[in-house]
Every structure is written in C-alpha cells, then in structure tokens.
Amino acid sequence: METLYIMLKKFTGKTILVLGSNVGATEIVQYAKENGAYTIVADYYPIERSEAKQIADEARLISTADSDALNRLIIEKKVNGVLAGISEFNLLKAMELSQRHGLLFYCNKIQWDSIENKGQFRKLCEKNGVPCPKTYYIGKEQQCCKLHQEIFPLIVKPVDCAASRGVYICSNEEQLRDGVTKAATCSNIGEVIVEEFVSGNEFTAHYTIANGKATLSCIDNRYPVAVHGGKVTTIPVARIYPSTYISDYIEKVNPSLVKLCENIGVKNGVVFVQGIHNPRSGQFWIFEGGLRSAAELPNRLICKINGINYMNNIVDYILLGKGTFPSEKDDPYMKGKCCGIISFVAKHGTVGTICGLEDAVAATPSVIGYESRYPVGSVTPDTDTLRQLMIRFVMICDSRELLAKDVTYLNEHITVLNDKGENMVIKLSSKRIIEDF
Predict the structure, then answer these.
(1) What is the pTM of this model?
(2) Among candidates 17, 8, 56, which has minimal Cα distance to 36?
(3) Can you tell me the distance from the alpha carbon of 407 to that of 429, in angstroms, rounded to the nearest whole number?
C-alpha cells in the first residue's frame, strides 16, 4: 500500500490577523498565505477597495478601532498572530491585542516609544553617540522656554506624530510661539520638541534586526518638493537607492546606529531613521525614526535584489517565535542597481482624469509595482504631509541614467488633471536624478 506524504508548509495550522489595508498589508497576507497560514484582514474598507482583503482567506468589515469586535474575532478564529502594514495606529492596535491574548509581537510599548517619540529618540541617540541636531526644548506648550533670537531658525514638531504633520520652520519668536501651539495640537500628549535647524540633503535608512543583530538594509537620497510656498516642510517626490553618500554614512554614522538598534532590546524587527547630510561639511544629523518600516516600504526593492525581506522576518517571528532573516545577505549598495520610489505629488483638488497610467507602466519594465491612491472623483488633501503622495512607482534600473530615462517616459505618458482640466500633480524632473539634487 502506497503511503501518502503531505508536505506541510511552515505556517500550516497558524492563523494571522492583519489589521488594515494600507501599504504593506497585501505583502504580509501574500507571504503568510503562501506559507500555509490562514489569513484574515479586518478594517472598515469594503473588499472592492482592499487588495489585501481580495487575496486573504477571509475579510471582515470591522474597524481597527473596534477593540471589542477584534478581541472576539481573535478568540473565535483562534488567531496565532496579529500584525499590520506601516500604519502607526494599526501597529499599536496589533501590539495591544497581541499583549491581551498572550501572542508574540515584535516589540513592546516601551521599545516602540523609545524610537517613535521624538524626545525619547533624541535622548537615545545622544546615549549611543548618534549625531543629531541640538535640542533646545522638549515638553508641554505652556512650559516652552523663551528662546533667544540668535539661535533662529528653529524646527518645531510634535513629539509623537508621523508623515510630516505639525512640523514648522520658525525664523523669529512670533513664528516660534505660533509653531509651538500648532505642533502641540498635533500631539496626542501635547508635547513638542524644539531643535536646531540644520541644512543639507535628507535621507532615510532602514535597519533590520534579526535575532538581536542589526544590519543596515538600505539608505536613500530624498528628493523634496514643496506644494505650498514659504517655509514649509517638503514632500519626497522621489527616494533613490543607494544614497550617493552611502560609503561616508557607513563610516561615520552606521556603527553608532547599529549599537542603538541592538540596545533597544528588540529581537526581530525593523527600524528606520531619517537624517540630513551637509555635502559641504560632510556632517550627518539623525533627527527622528520609527520602530517599523517607513511608508515607502523599501523591502519591495530589497527582496527583489537581495532575496531577503524584513517584513517576512517579522511574520516568521510572530507566528513561529524565531526570525529567519539571513543578515549576511543584507547589501545596502543594492548589488550595484539604482532603485527608485518615484511619486506624483498631488495639488489640492478633485481628480478629473488619470490618463495613460496602466499603458505607461506596462511599457516600463523597470516598474516592479505601483500605487494609485486617489481615483477619479476623489478630492486630494491640502497639506504639506505625505498624504499628498498620489501615484507611486517602485523601480529597479541598472544605472541612474536609465532610471532618469524611464522617469522621463512616465512623466511624458501619464497625465493627471483636475475637474477643471488643469494639471494637478508635481513630477520629478529627471535632470535631478543625474545632477543629484
């Protein structure tokens, strides 16, 4: 009699609950499902508006703010792990639910706050020798000290907000008072940080923590545009990898940041940090970070080039209790490739038409994925935050020159107009890719 052997996948018998349909959720569901897990996605989006729900085994119309309903779902489905994409709210909810039901999560609230809270992160940087701007004040609005005019300009921001919300550049005491008040209203705890204004080119670096060891996974150049005039925070129309000053960063900054990541006590996770590099002085400053992937989700590039994925490592940890990330394969130089996360940045208005998007993507093999966030008929916001990112392309090329060529093609073949027939997006000039800022 023939014996039938069934090959079990590593997550067979496990159930994962993914909160939200934002960036990263689809990739989590796909990976977990491919490896044998039963996948559930819960949020208030109908299935037709959620790619993650469309590929999951089960979709639930439950708001991620509804703790009672989510608790019942976890018990009902005997959930083994809860996770989310890049959303801070959903990740914090996943952490809360995991702790309540005795499930593994990649970090605890103390570890989360040590990176996500700008005041705590600043102290952590100073403790570990990470270069950062001078800090003049951290605390409540009403207790904010009067700062002498000679140290202007200053940056004011809430200690606990992301996506560039509540960030103000202040050139005098009146702007400082106004900026502190506005920033405090964006903070959940009513606290702000006032820091030295430093100039240069911005970047974001991602670190993967696997079994307690931290490695640099990628570092980009951030290409800013301003939707509004005046001294406002800018929006990244592009992120290009690897950074043009990667070698200098690895020599001057990387050792202290590896130390910081390993000292927070997380065994398996991902940390991103944002910073500024001054090309004239060669100086680096790190000004904030997060114990999660940043919104651009560069693991989409990393997994294609290096064959490794920090988000998959987190899924492995919460479902199996151990990480499987081969740190020795981390290569922030991206194996000599030039990669881009290129965006069309929306001006405020009602979307009238989006022409040529699918055809242009199909004709550009370097585009390995894309997102279109605001469909025809929707109203784009009027902010200086990442909410203005309308269409985003994930691209891998052999050189900067080829990336510039493909960006030119996308720019010329995709048109986004408002309901009045006017252009409503800001695009990256391909010359900036070659000339570097």
Answers:
(1) 0.89
(2) 8
(3) 8
d(CA 403, CA 382): 30
Q: How far apart are CA 326 and CA 121, in angstroms?
A: 27
CA angle 336, 342, 344 (to 5 degrees): 170
| Long-range own/partner contacts, residues 142-149 (CB < 8 A, 24 or more apart) | 144/180, 144/192, 144/194, 146/173, 147/173, 147/176, 147/194, 149/173
Which helix (DSSP H) or strand (DSSP E) does residue 53 occupy?
helix 51-55
Predicted confidence (pLDDT) per residue in 187-206, tens digit: 888 888 888 888 899 999 99
Burial class (CB in 10 A: 0-12, 13-18, 19+), 257: buried
Q: What is the C-alpha to C-alpha distance for residues 246 and 234, in angstroms, rounded to an integer?
A: 22
Residue holding tokens 């008040």? 181
β-pair partners for 380: 349
Among the residues of 134-224, which ranges form H helices?
173-186
Token readout for 87 is: 């959303």
**Token code pair at residue 173:** 């005491």
